[in-house]
Design brief:
Helix content: 25-40%
Oligomer: single chain
Strand order of the largest sheet: 1-2-3-5-4
CATH architecture: 3-Layer(aba) Sandwich
Shape: globular
Number of domains: 1
Strand content: 5-15%
Structural class: alpha/beta
Number of strands: 5
Number of helices: 9
CATH superfamily: Thiamin diphosphate (ThDP)-binding fold, Pyr/PP domains
Radius of gyration: 17 Å
Largest sheet: 5 strands, parallel
Distance between the termini: 39 Å
Length: 235
C-alpha cells in the first residue's frame, strides 16, 4: 500500500486506540494524550471545517493544540482523517520522524502551531482570531484545546480577560479537565471564563453527543469556552 492509498483509507473512532498503539517509546505522556481523544475526534469528525486538501485555505477553521506535550491522540486523529499517513505512527518520537513529542507545524500537515510549552496556545488563538477579523475573514472559526493545568499560567488569564470584552465570537476554547490543575476549585474554570464575558458549557468529555451540542451552541457576540471533564489524571 502506498502512502497516497493509505491516506485515503477510511478510519473510524473505533480505530483510534489501534492507531495510538502504534506509537511506542519513552516520554509518551499517555494520560495527557488519552484525556483529549474524544474532544479531538468530535471536533475533527463533526465540527471543524478542515481537510487535508485545504491546509492552506484562508477560509479554513483553525485548530490549535495548546496541550502539545501529549500529542499522540492528535497524531492518531490526523492519521485517521488523512492529514498524515498512518505509516508514520510507529516512528513517533524518533530522531528522523516528523511526529515529535511536541507537534511541529512545519513538519506535520494540519498542525497550526508548534506547541507544548504550557500557556501559549490560548494567547496565540486570541491573536489568530484578531488577525482574521482584521483581514475581514469572518467565516473561519478558531479553536484551541488547553489542559486544566495550563490555566495556572498567567498568560491564559490575560487572554481570557481580553477576549471577552473584545467580542471575539469566532474564538472557542476547549478545556480538558482531568483534575490536574494546582489551584483549581470545583466550578472555578467556568466561573473564570464567565467573569470575563465568555459563553460557557460544562460537559462529560467522553460523551460525543454532549460534546457536539456544546461545541455547536450559539454564542453571538461572545467567545465560547467548553469545559470537558474526564477521569482524573491519577486514575
Amino acid at each position: 500500500m502506498t502512502i497516497t492509498e493509505e491516506r485515503r483509507q477510511a478510519y473510524s473512532y473505533a480505530d483510534l486506540p489501534g492507531l495510538m498503539g502504534r506509537m511506542t517509546g519513552d516520554e509518551k505522556h499517555g494520560p495527557a494524550a488519552t484525556s483529549t481523544l474524544d474532544v479531538l475526534w468530535v471536533l475533527h469528525d463533526r465540527v471543524l471545517r478542515v481537510a487535508p486538501e485545504r491546509v492552506d485555505d484562508p477560509g479554513r477553521d483553525r485548530f490549535l493544540l495548546s496541550k502539545g506535550h501529549g500529542p499522540m491522540a492528535y497524531y492518531a486523529v490526523l492519521a485517521a482523517k488523512g492529514f498524515v499517513p498512518a505509516a508514520w505512527l510507529p516512528d513517533f518520537g524518533s530522531y528522523d520522524s516528523p511526529l515529535g513529542h511536541h507537534p511541529d507545524r512545519t513538519l506535520v500537515p494540519g498542525v497550526e502551531i508548534g506547541s507544548g510549552s504550557l500557556g501559549h496556545g490560548l494567547p496565540i488563538a486570541v491573536g489568530t482570531a484578531l488577525g482574521l477579523r482584521a483581514q475581514g475573514l469572518t467565516g473561519p472559526a478558531v479553536w484551541v484545546l488547553v489542559g486544566d493545568a495550563e490555566l495556572d499560567e498567567g498568560s491564559n488569564h490575560e487572554a481570557i480577560a481580553f477576549a471577552g470584552p473584545a467580542g471575539l465570537e469566532r474564538l472557542h476554547t476547549v478545556v480538558v479537565d482531568n483534575s490536574s490543575a494546582t489551584y483549581a476549585r470545583p466550578g472555578g474554570i467556568v466561573a473564570r471564563f464567565e467573569a470575563a464575558g465568555w459563553s460557557t458549557a460544562t460537559v462529560d468529555g467522553r460523551d460525543h453527543e454532549a460534546l457536539h451540542a456544546a461545541f455547536t451552541a450559539p454564542h453571538p457576540g461572545r467567545p465560547h469556552a467548553v469545559v470537558a471533564r474526564v477521569e482524573p489524571k491519577s486514575d
